[in-house]
Amino acid sequence: MTINNFKKKIFAWDEYEKKFYFIKNNLNINIDELLFIEGQKKILLQNTILFAKGMPYNYGLLWGARGTGKSSLIFTIFNYLIKNHNISLLEIKRNQIKFITSILRKLDNINQKFIIFFDDFSFNSESEDFIIFKNILDGALSKNTKYLYYATSNFRSFIQNKNYNQTNLSMLQKQEVSDNETALSDRFGIWLGFEKFTDDQYLNIVKNYCIKHNINNANHLINKKALQWSLNRGSKSGREAYYFVKSLFNQAI
Question: The pTM is what?
Answer without folding.
Answer: 0.86
